Here is the input.
Amino acid sequence: MKKISLLSLILIITITSCSTVRVASDYDKQANFDTYKSFAFYKPGIDKAEVSDLDKKRILRAIETDMISKGFSKSSSPDVLVSIFTKTKENVNVYQNNFGWGYGWGWNPWFWGAGYNTVSRTTEGTLYIDLIDATKKELIWQGMGTAALTKNVDRKQEKMNEIVSAILEKYPPENQ
Here is the structure.
C-alpha cells in the first residue's frame, strides 16, 4: 500500500512540475516605475525574436492584455517600449527500468531480466520581456519565463497567456 501512495505522490509531483512556469526578473533601481503609464511595442526588437509570426502574435496579444490590466494604455507616444526575445531547447529524458523477467542479466540483484527504457522529448521555451524607457532608450525592467511548450494549436494561446502572466506578475518590482 505504501508503494502505491509513494508512486501516486511521485506522479502528481511530476505532472504538476511539468505545467509550471519558472520566472525571474531584474530591474534598474534608479527607475521610478510609478511614472510609466503607457506602452508600445518595440518593433525592431520584436522582429529579431526567433519564433514564428503566429507565436509572436500570441505573445504580443498576451502582453497587451496583461499590460492593460495593470493600468497601462497603448500609445503612439509611450512611456515604455516593450520588446521580446526567445530561446528554445529540447530536453531528452531517459527512464531506465532494469526490473522484470526476461533474458540476460539485469543489474537488479533479485531478478533476472533486461528491463526496458523509455525516452521522452520536450521542448522548453524561454521568453524574455524587456521594458525600455522610451525617452532615455534604456532597459528598466526585464522578466524571463521558462516553460514546456505545447504543440497543440488549440492550447498555444492559453499557454502563452500563462507564461506572460507569470512573467508580468513580477512587474512592477516590489523593492523600488
About this structure: The beta strands are 22-27, 38-41, 73-74, 80-97, 116-133, 138-148.
